[in-house]
Amino acid sequence: MEIERVESAFNGVRKGLERIGAEMYTGSHEAPEKAGEYNLRVSAYDDGGNVAIADKTVGVTKWHAPKTNWQPTDPVNIEDYNRIKNNLEFLNERASELYAAFLVQDMGADKIGYRTDYHADEWNLFEQNLDTINKHIFTQDYGPTVRFFDNGPFIDWEELNRLEGAILQMNILLDNLEAGLARLSFRLGDWKGVKV
């Protein structure tokens, strides 16, 4: 019997996978808004009406390694924009878990098409949210906050290096904080030998 079709189901969305070889299929799903563990199911149907199912738990995170080696000739594409936005959201969620909860300003949805424009207020939100996160964790000096204006100069490579470098350093700071959190160990049992 031969495989007729292969489908995947993830986060409530079902998609057909594309055949790319004799026994290989590929496809993609949009990542959920919230980080966490999600179930992925892949179903292969043969021409005899049989189905084989494989289930897997997939960890989804908004964190993507920042680009900290921007050069003057590097263009800013939507993957860069979405990475910076999602990393700021990730830092906010993580810092809110490790410290007292706080909010940053909503930066909107990911950009999905190359016809979308960048606006000064979007980059200003990134700068403001970076500053807000920095003020709620162990405050570091990441250089002066830049403000952008419509029809003014676009964000440059030095500012992108500062912005993404600060994001990386804040994540490392949160890693260190999480690793160093005090743990209280105790043993349950009777109170033999304990004098009060």
Quick summary:
The chain has 196 residues and is α+β, with helices and mostly antiparallel strands. The protein has 3 helices and 6 strands. A hairpin with a 2-residue loop joins strand 1 and strand 2.
Written as H for each helix and E for each strand, in order along the chain, the element string is EEEEEEHHH
Global Rg? 23 Å
Strand content: 15-25%
Which residues form runs of ≥5 with pLDDT under 50? none
Tally of helical runs: 3
Biggest beta-sheet profile: 4 strands, antiparallel
Which percent bin holds the helix content?
A: 25-40%
| Structural shape | globular
Secondary structure category: alpha+beta
- What's the average pLDDT? 85
- Sheet with most strands: strand arrangement: 2-1-5-6
Tally of strands: 6
- Whole-number tally of structural domains: 2
Distance between the termini: 75 Å
Any overview of this molecule?
- This protein is of the alpha+beta class and 196 residues long.
- The chain has two domains: 58 residues, Immunoglobulin-like; 102 residues, no CATH class.
- Helix content is 31%, strand content 19%.
- Strands 2-1-5-6 form a four-stranded antiparallel sheet, with no helix packed on it.
- Helix 1 runs parallel beside helix 2, helix 1 runs parallel beside helix 3 and helix 2 runs parallel beside helix 3.
- The mean pLDDT is 85.
